[in-house]
Amino acid sequence: MSVRTPYTIKGDTGDWELVMGLEVHAQVSSNAKLFSGAATAFGADPNCNVSLVDAAMPGMLPVLNRFCVEQAIRTGLGLKAQINHYSRFDRKNYFYPDLPQGYQISQFAHPIVGEGEIEVDVEPAHGGEAYSFTCRIERLHLEQDAGKSIHDMDPNSTYVDLNRSGVALMEIVSRPDVRTPAEAAAYVKKLRAIVIALGTCDGDMEKGNLRADVNVSVCKPGQYEKYRETGDFSHLGTRCEIKNMNSFRFIQQAIEYEARRQIEIIELAAKWIRKPVCSIRTRARPAPCARRKMRTITVTSRTLISFRWKWSRHGSTRSARHSLSFRMRSGHALKASTVCRAMMRVF
């Protein structure tokens, strides 16, 4: 094994170095979802593996899957990580059509697995000498996966498949210890090999069962060493997150392109603002504009969703029962604005 050497990119104002941290989402190998008894089998007909909890029906309470917790602990032990005796789930609130709850159940302040590390072997391309490095693991936590939005079945509608909604994910977050595109690919390969060997994830990247988000930043030579000495992130550059990549080759290509893009912006003395970047095959969002055609949401199998609630006017003892039913069949589209207004009235 050779010594690890810095990976530099030449710019107009001098050399730059890469700094990266990765967030890997690994689907837990289990027969049921994280908070419901719905099946997790791949390839089922759309909206067949959906329980009332996954569809966010009013009054439905989640029940934690014990086996998913055991799988997360087993993975933590494989990463030489600390297993926390106390962990807690939190709500991460955001709206998206394939997230019926309007929030994701995840872990923030108290993850189930704490700090660990893995030894990564790197074999650089173009005849370089192999070497190894230690990548620190910051945390591993459990969370729900979202559903699937299908944008290419109709030019004017978005179809929603909730089979994946609520499936258990392990998010494995690393420290910014990755310095080259080859190291990033080697890290994901090693992590994939570990979870496959442990039986906690099948590692099938083609099916989306293992995906990587890469946080890329650039800095001047010597700044990373100052960060390791002091722990002060101000020595590092502003990071940009490349999301949902499921190919080792695409990971390396995206990192190389993003690093050169950041260097070009910084050298032009432009202000660099942190933002996520969507990679190939990630969710597409409509571009914001003053006036645009309303998008629609279509559910691809026959489903009936009903909301019922009571309300009473201020100063009146009379109460009325109102009901709102959406009958969603194949080929029947619902305006997204209609769904949003109904959910706002219910909750």
Based on Cα principal axes, name the global outline.
globular
Largest sheet: 8 strands, mixed
Helix content: 10-25%
In DSSP terms (H or I, runs of 4 or more residues), the helix count works out at 5
> Could you give the distance between the termini?
60 Å
Radius of gyration: 23 Å
Beta-strand proportion = 25-35%
| Mean of all residue-level pLDDT scores | 81
Count of extended strands: 16
The run of helices and strands is: EEHEEEEEEEHEHEHEEEEEH
What does this structure look like?
The protein has five helices and 16 strands. 33% of the residues are buried. The protein starts with 7 loop residues before the first strand and ends with a helix. The strands form four sheets. Strands 1, 2, 5, 6, 9, 10, 11 and 12 form an eight-stranded mixed sheet that branches. The chain has a four-stranded mixed sheet with strand order 7-8-13-16. It has a two-stranded antiparallel ribbon with strand order 3-4. The protein has 347 residues and is α+β, with helices and mostly antiparallel strands. The chain has two domains: 8-154 and 163-278, no CATH class; 296-346, no CATH class. It has helices at residues 66-78, 181-198, 223-230, 248-267, 336-346, and strands spanning 8-11, 14-27, 90-93, 103-106, 116-122, 131-144, 148-150, 157-161, 168-174, 210-219, 240-245, 276-278, 296-299, 303-312, 319-328, 333-335. It is globular, with a radius of gyration of 23 Å. The longest helix has 20 residues, at 248-267.
